[in-house]
């Protein structure tokens, strides 16, 4: 079971980073449950974070190989 655990940096903006265009939405409050970007991406904040964390892990693995 070749399982790897990758820990993202504590300050990685997983829920504030647009998974489509990469822009960071600095003014997103914790009470804002929907992420809306100027590029048109509208998605649940937690789902957005999961997409970005997946991409983060993939980038770490690519860099290691």
Automatic annotation (TrEMBL):
Pfam families: Cas12f1-like_TNB. Keywords: DNA-binding. Residues 2-53 form the Cas12f1-like TNB domain. GO terms for molecular function: DNA binding. This is Cas12f1-like TNB domain-containing protein. It comes from Bacillus smithii 7_3_47FAA. The lineage of its organism: Bacteria, Bacillati, Bacillota, Bacilli, Bacillales.
